[in-house]
Structure formats: structure tokens, C-alpha cells
Design brief:
Distance between the termini of chain A: 37 Å
Largest sheet of chain B: 2 strands, antiparallel
Oligomer: heterodimer
Distance between the termini of chain B: 43 Å
Helix content of chain B: over 70%
Number of strands of chain B: 2
Strand order of the largest sheet of chain A: 1-2
Structural class of chain B: mainly alpha
Helix content of chain A: over 70%
Largest interface: A-B, 40 and 45 residues
Shape of chain B: globular
Order of helices and strands of chain A: HHHHEEHHHHHHHH
Number of helices of chain B: 14
Strand content of chain A: under 5%
Structural class of chain A: mainly alpha
Radius of gyration of chain A: 19 Å
């Protein structure tokens, strides 16, 4: 594999991996605190991307404003799905499969509402057009200001989320919920309020991920859904419980999708059409062989931890 | 407005009803009766469809005594013409091919289902099985889409004709095909009713309710799970063969997660754990599907900007959410299981007979 290709694919790995981390942390947080494998998470991403696209089309090109809009829409989508779908079901103590099915249904509804809207206003496959500048050029490797937006923003958000979880009262309460919901209720943690805040946070981060994603590729109603299994693969590599594991998992998934795939393509002639199968193989292998994910390698797994 | 041909609409709906019933009965046996969360139904349906794609292009010409033409690439048109000529002129070859397709599809799919349930025994948490099946279905889809010589990768194979194509008249051939679909669905229904009421079926329900107790009673639960996966997957593959024959082409794009969700909607709508519910759910979804098609075309012709096909998916999501929240048992909830002996005993004691729905 030529070195130029290698560096480009590594840059892609970092860029996509940062976005995966942002989304996968949401899935890990939902699973730990709310005990729900949320397949609608991907569609909060698409909703956020559309919010960002509409703001950018209205002429506002400041990335902070765009991301704020995406955060609000993603957070609202998550909160509404919690209040109207998941909370009533949790109250009835239904089986996990009912929750999984309803998360699929929520995702389906959001996705096709976006489809209807995109179809009506002709919003298919547009990019969030923040002005592009080339920051760095070395041979075939070109880094634009896009890289400077996507990677640092994701990393700052991931660090902020980790700090929030480990250093603030809200984070402590969320971890208490993750550990034992009944016990948390008994010692007087306002469970419902903490859950609402967690949903807002999770949805908002998904929305921001959508905005960042839409800056580098085209926005479409399927963009989140198309990535959902890669993101789940990252969260599963983190054992669905560990933050560090999830972040590492996100970069592992991105690395195998970009660098490893290119390597296989270049050296063994594996068709690039098989790329989407990589996260699936990761999921199946991890669940079968090492169900606690990378955490098992780092330290004891189990509860939500830093 | 377009004119709606009532006869043709009825035939189309009943054909869909037959195909959907097979898929719904399969999922109901697996999840409704035995509690195996099969989120990979699309995989088992697609095995049937891919088998049809392969036999129709490779086996059918051999049965007709002709050389087969490679179905993909430059000879695609030629192969398609060869298929339709054989289907029009040699009905016997068509029927033998169909029987072979159904048999091979059921065996392959059953074997896959059986194997998967053993491989996944190691899984730590129950819902991981749902995820593995979901992801496994997608993996197979991507591998088949990438493999050029199976069903022409992403182009798919068209011209998979119905077995009654030789009748010439479109109306009577689709009528006969409808009868075939409904008949197979009713056979599957009768079989699954029998199975549900058998000692094996009662053991599966016990397994669904409490695994440890069932194991404690000395039942081999791994084998039971594998067996029901075998039966369910085989039925789903039969549905897949008919699905391919009905649409006339085999393409990997038809077997995405949305298909799995459609089947779940049927079972949840009809009634989880009730075979009659599976039939009812399949019927309702078949009607809804046909209605959306007609509405989408009508709206499109009247110059409306709204793409009605998207509304179908929103409606499906809403139906699923409403059912799960307000009628988790479905329209026809599962009722207590009764056996003939049980009924006789109750009657001898002078008690009211229990409802025989199960």
C-alpha cells in the first residue's frame, strides 16, 4: 500500500472515528442509564443534520450557530421519544424486545418524516456549506478547515461529556442510575429528572454529530441509519458500559473500515463493496468471544465508568 | 382517478396475504411460541429468494434439456429470454423447478437457522441474539451483493416467472399463483397449529416463560430452540421463494432490516403467540400495502407533491407503537392452551369449555 494512501486513510480514520465516538457514547449512555439499546439514536443524528442544513441554507454559516441548532433539534427528538414512547413502556415493565422494537419504530417514524420533508422541499444530498479553506497540503494529503472543525469539536465534546459524568452532581446521579435504578430512587435521586437530562444530552450530542457529518458529506434522511451498526459496533467494543472502551472502539471500527479495508483491497484484491460488512463482523465476533468488549482488556468491566 | 379492477386487486391482496402469512407464521413460531427474538427474518426470507434466483437461471434450463446461459453481464438479455421461453413452453420443467426450489430453500434455510441457534448459545445476554441475527442478515446481504456470480451482485436477477406463466393469460396465471400461495400459507398454518398444541409446542411455551424451570424439568432447551429455528426458518424461506416469484425479480435491496420490521409489525398487530393472529396481521398488512400502492399512484397522477410511499413507513411505525403501548397482546391475544383431553375432562366435570383459540 503506497504511503500517500495510508496517510489519507489514517486521516479519514481519525475524522470518522471522532464522529463515531460522539454517536457511540450516546448509545453507551442510553444503554447504561436507561437500560435501552436505542436504534432510533441514528435518526436523531439525521434530524440534527437536517436542522443544521436548514439553518445553513437560511444563510447562517457560523458553525457554532449551526451546531447549536442541531443540538436543540436532536435533544428535542430524543426527549420526545422518551416522554411519549419509552417512559410509558418502562412504566409497564415490558420485555427488552418490546423496547427494541419500539426504538426501531421511533427511528422509522423520524426517518420517513425527514424523507417527506426532504422530498417536499427538495433537500436531498446537499452539504452543509460552511466555507472551505485548505489548511495544510503535503503531496496528495490535503487537510481542510473541515478537519479542524470535526476532530477538535468531537474530542472537546467527548472530554466535556466524560468530565460531566465524573465530576458533576448530574453525572454522579446518572452513574448511580446506571448502577442500580431502584437504589438511586430510594436514596432520593430525582430519577425522572435525571433521565430527562440524560436524554437531552444524548440526543443533543447525536444532533451535533449529524451537523459535523453533514459538513463533510451530503445530508440525507438515511445518513444516520446507514451508520447505526458501525456505531453499535463501537459501543459494543466498549462493552456498552465503558466510556474509554467506547471511544477506543469508535476508532477501531473507523480504522478497520478505512485503513484495514483499503489495505485488504490493495494487497489482496478484496472488493470495497464488502466494507459495510466490517462492523457486522466486529459485532458478531465481540458478542460471541468477548461480550464485555475492550474493557475486559483494560480493567474490570461492569458499571458505567470513566 | 384511475379505475380499480376489483378482481385484480383481490388477487393481488390474496397473493400478498399468502406470502406475508408464511413469514408471519414463521416469526410467530420462533418469537411468539418459543421466545426466540428473530430480528434476522429478512435473512431467512432472502435465502428463499436467492435460491429461486439461482435455480431459475441454472437449473431450469437443464430441466428443459437446454444449455444454461450465464445470467449476468452481456448475456443477461439472452438468459432472460431463455427463461421466459422455457416457462411459456414447458410447464413441466417450470413445476419441477419450483418444487426443487422450495425444497432446497427450506433445507438450506432450516440448516442455517439450526446452526445459528447453536453458534449463539454462548451469548451472555438474551438480547445479544436479536442483535447477532439482525447483523447476520445484513452481513449475508452485503456478501451476496458483492458476489457477482450468485445473483448478479447489485443488479439482481429479473424475469423470475411465476409457475403458471404458460397459461398465457395474465389473469388466470396470477389467479392460479394466488391459489398456490394461499394454499401453502394454510398448510403452514395448519401445521403450526398442530405443533403449538403438541407436547413439543407446550414445552416451547414453557421455555419462553421460564428457561430455568423448563431446564429443571429435564427438557433439552438448546435442542428445542434449534428445532424451532429450523422449522421457522424453513417456512420463512418458502415465503421468500414465493416473494421472489411474485415480484418477478431477486435483488438484495429487498431484504433489508425494513422487511424484518414489516414481519414484526404483522405479528405484533395480529397477536404474539397466536397463529390466527399471524394470519390476521398478514391480511391487514397486505391490504394496507395494496392501499398505499394505489394511493401513491393516484396521488402521483393527480400531481400531488407528497410521496405517499413514505407515509406507509410512518404509518407502520405508529401502528407498532400504538399496539405495543395499548394492546401488547395484539388484536387476537393468545389464549390458554387446551388439548382435546383437557376439554373432555372439563366437560365431564360440567365446566364451560375453554375457548379453542390458541
Amino acid at each position: 500500500m503506497p504511503p500517500a494512501l495510508l496517510t489519507t486513510s489514517l486521516v479519514n480514520t481519525i475524522q470518522i472515528g471522532s464522529l463515531y465516538a460522539l454517536m457511540a457514547l450516546g448509545i453507551t449512555l442510553t444503554f447504561s442509564v436507561m437500560k435501552l439499546p436505542n436504534f432510533a439514536h441514528a435518526d436523531y443524528v439525521s434530524a440534527g443534520a437536517y436542522a443544521a442544513l436548514i439553518v445553513s441554507l437560511s444563510g447562517v454559516l457560523n458553525p457554532f450557530v449551526i451546531m447549536a441548532a442541531a443540538f436543540i433539534v436532536g435533544a428535542l427528538a430524543a426527549l420526545i421519544s422518551h416522554l411519549f414512547v419509552f417512559k410509558p413502556l418502562e412504566g409497564r415493565d415490558v420485555s427488552l424486545y418490546t423496547l427494541i422494537l419500539s426504538s426501531f419504530a421511533v427511528g422509522l417514524i423520524i426517518r420517513y418524516i425527514l424523507f417527506l420533508m426532504a422530498d417536499y422541499f427538495n433537500l436531498f444530498d446537499l452539504r452543509i456549506a460552511i466555507p472551505l479553506r485548505i489548511l495544510f497540503r503535503e503531496g496528495s494529503l490535503i487537510l481542510s478547515n473541515l478537519f479542524a472543525w470535526v476532530v477538535p469539536t468531537s474530542i472537546v465534546l467527548v472530554i466535556a461529556l466524560t468530565l460531566l459524568l465524573n465530576r458533576t452532581p448530574l453525572g454522579r446521579e446518572m452513574r448511580a442510575l446506571a448502577n442500580n435504578t431502584s437504589l438511586a430512587r430510594v436514596i432520593g435521586i430525582p430519577v425522572e429528572r435525571v433521565k430527562n437530562h440524560a436524554w437531552l444530552l444524548v440526543g443533543g450530542l447525536a444532533g451535533v454529530a449529524g451537523a459535523l457529518w453533514g459538513m463533510q458529506t451530503a445530508v440525507s434522511p438515511l445518513m444516520g441509519w446507514a451508520a447505526v451498526l458501525s456505531v453499535f459496533a463501537a459501543a459494543i467494543l466498549g462493552g456498552l458500559s465503558s466510556f474509554t472502551g467506547t471511544i477506543l472502539g469508535a476508532y477501531v471500527v473507523a480504522f478497520s473500515e478505512h485503513t484495514v479495508m483499503l489495505f485488504l483491497n490493495f494487497n489482496f484484491g478484496v472488493d470495497l463493496a464488502y466494507k459495510p460488512a466490517i462492523p457486522f463482523i466486529i459485532i458478531i465476533a465481540v458478542l460471541l468471544i468477548r461480550p464485555r468488549g475492550l474493557t475486559q482488556l483494560i480493567k474490570r468491566g461492569g458499571e458505567l465508568q470513566r | 382517478m384511475i379505475n380499480i379492477d376489483i378482481g385484480a386487486t383481490a388477487i393481488a391482496i390474496l397473493t400478498l396475504f399468502g406470502i406475508y402469512s408464511l413469514m408471519a407464521i414463521s416469526l410467530n413460531l420462533e418469537y411468539g411460541i418459543a421466545g426466540v427474538p428473530n430480528f434476522g427474518q429478512a435473512l431467512f426470507v432472502s435465502i428463499g429468494a436467492y435460491t429461486a434466483g439461482i435455480t431459475y437461471t441454472r437449473v431450469l434450463p437443464l430441466l428443459a434439456g437446454l444449455d444454461s446461459v450465464h445470467p449476468c453481464g452481456p448475456t443477461m438479455g439472452q438468459a432472460l429470454q431463455l427463461r421466459s421461453e422455457i416457462m411459456a413452453a414447458q410447464p413441466a420443467a417450470g413445476f419441477i423447478n419450483l418444487a426443487l426450489t422450495l425444497l432446497v430453500a427450506a433445507i438450506v434455510s432450516g440448516a442455517v437457522g439450526f446452526t445459528v441457534s447453536y453458534v449463539t448459545l454462548r451469548l451472555k445476554e438474551e438480547w445479544f441474539l436479536a442483535l447477532v441475527l439482525l447483523v447476520g442478515g445484513e452481513t449475508v446481504r452485503i456478501v451476496v451483493r458483492g458476489a457477482d456470480n450468485l445473483i448478479c451482485s447489485h443488479n439482481g436477477i429479473s424475469g423470475v416467472a411465476q409457475p403458471f406463466y404458460f397459461l398465457g393469460d395474465a389473469r388466470s396465471s396470477s389467479l392460479m399463483f394466488m391459489i398456490l400461495c394461499v394454499a401453502l400459507a394454510l398448510i403452514a398454518y395448519a401445521y403450526s397449529q398442530r405443533l403449538t398444541r403438541s407436547p413439543f409446542g407446550r414445552m416451547l411455551k414453557a421455555l419462553r416463560e421460564n428457561e430455568d424451570v423448563t431446564r429443571g424439568l429435564g427438557k433439552g432447551i438448546s435442542l428445542a430452540r434449534a428445532q424451532i429455528m429450523l422449522i421457522g426458518s424453513a417456512i420463512a424461506a418458502v415465503g421468500g421463494v414465493l416473494f421472489a416469484l411474485n415480484t418477478g425479480f431477486v435483488n438484495t435491496n429487498d431484504f433489508v432490516v425494513n422487511l424484518t420490521l414489516d414481519i414484526w409489525v404483522m405479528v405484533v398487530l395480529g397477536g404474539i403467540g397466536n397463529n390466527r393472529g399471524a394470519l390476521l396481521g398478514a391480511a391487514l398488512i397486505a391490504i394496507l400495502d395494496r392501499f398505499t400502492q394505489v394511493a401513491a399512484i393516484t396521488l402521483n397522477m393527480s400531481g400531488s407533491e407528497i410521496e405517499f410511499n413514505y407515509v406507509r413507513f410512518i404509518a407502520f411505525g405508529i401502528i407498532l407503537l400504538l399496539m405495543l403501548r395499548y394492546r401488547p397482546g395484539g388484536l387476537l391475544p393468545e389464549s390458554p392452551l387446551t388439548t382435546n383431553a383437557h376439554e373432555v375432562l372439563r366437560r365431564a366435570r360440567g365446566a364451560e369449555p375453554l375457548s379453542r383459540r390458541a
